Structures are given as C-alpha cells and as structure tokens.
Amino acid sequence: MGPLNNVLAFDDVRDLFEKALARIEEGGNGIRVRLGTRGAAIRLRHRMNKFRATDRKANAKVYPEDDPNHNASIYDTLQLRIPPEESPDSTTLIIERRSSDMYEVEDL
User: Fold this and answer.
1) Which of 70, 78, 28 is nearest to 48 (CA)?
2) Prediction pTM value
C-alpha cells in the first residue's frame, strides 16, 4: 500500500472523525473545522473521503462478508459539508451526523 492508501497516513483525519463521533455521543450534531481558505477545506474533505474509502477496503480484508463491518467504515454515518462560497463559513468543513431530520418531509 502506498502512503495515500495507508490508513496510517491519515492520523489527523481519523482524529477529526473521532472528535465528531465523540461530540455526537455527548448529544451534539458534530464539529466544525475552520480552515484558512476554501481550498484547504475542500482538500481536507477530499482526504477525509479518501480515508473512509481506505478504511472500508481495510475492513473488507478483516471482516467476513456476512459481517456488517465488511467493506464499511464506522465513519460512513457522518457527512462532510462545506457551506456555499457566499457564506461567512465558506472556509469551514462541517462534520455532522447524517439524519433524516436534515430534510423537510411532508405527508402526502
């Protein structure tokens, strides 16, 4: 495995995911990571998604196919979002719990 495909190359990313999960366990919705530029936020989001993909592949090798952890990452429950460019938070990466509460739902 090359350095970009090795989960050990993503210690900072794993730490951020873990902080988001810990905050959710405490009753919050996640965390915000403030960066210097929008480009830095986009690059971090890309690295976090790459880490999740690498984590899934590693778990596919560790867990048997009938195990729910096979080809899955514990971080798949989190979404990564950057507010629009015109937003004052446009250089912020938001790591939050994915939930149906985020949608406006109407009965038919």
Assistant:
1) 78
2) 0.84
What's the chain's Rg over C-alpha atoms? 16
Distance of alpha carbon 45 from alpha carbon 72, whole angstroms: 18
**Maximum distance among all alpha carbons in the chain?**
51
CA 49/CA 82 separation, integer angstroms:
13
pLDDT tens for residues 44-97?
A: 999 999 999 999 999 999 998 998 889 999 999 999 999 999 999 999 999 999
If you ran DSSP here, which 8-state letter would residue 3 be given? G
Instruction: Enumerate residues 6+ apart whose C-beta is below 8 A from 80.
Output: 45, 48, 49, 93, 94, 95
Going by the DSSP 8-state scheme, the letter that residue 102 receives in this structure is G
Strand partners, 56: none
Residue 55 burial (C-beta neighbours within 10 Å; 0-12, 13-18, 19+): buried
